[in-house]
Specification:
It contains three helices and two strands. It is mainly alpha-helical. It has a domain of about 80 residues. Helix 1 packs antiparallel against helix 2. The radius of gyration is 23 Å and the shape is elongated. This is DUF4212 domain-containing protein.
């Protein structure tokens, strides 16, 4: 029986730790999304104060939440790129896309819009 490769084992442990971090970030960002989206809508009447000359509930619904969503997407992308660097996988590494993970290799006769439908009806 072969002994486990320590380099491969260390990489798997780093990948597992990165995945746990990913799940935590996802949970926090979903909580922010929920609080921002539904919290502002639910408590709109109670949020009656002026913010840059507009009622806060209107401003948050029209502008503030959009800014929050963009910041959330940017923070997630930044963190996932950092996680990729931590486990040793460059985010921009070119991959061979002629095959997918299942080993399927697309044929070279693509280019017809109805190829997918024709293949299903054969």
């Amino acid at each position: 029986m072969n002994a486990p490769d320590p380099v491969r084992l260390a990489r798997q442990q780093r990948a597992a730790a990165a995945w746990r971090t990913n799940l935590r970030w996802t949970a926090v960002l979903l909580a922010l999304w929920f609080a921002g989206t539904f919290g502002v809508s639910w408590f709109a009447r109670e949020l009656r104060f002026d913010f840059f000359g507009w009622p806060f509930s209107f401003w948050a619904g029209a502008q503030g939440l959009l800014i929050l969503y963009v910041l959330m997407a940017a923070a997630y992308a930044w963190r996932m790129n950092r996680a990729d660097r931590e486990i040793g996988e460059p985010a921009d590494e070119p991959r061979d896309q002629s095959r997918d993970q299942s080993g399927y290799e697309p044929s070279n006769d693509a280019g017809h819009a109805d190829d997918g439908d024709a293949a299903r009806h054969r």
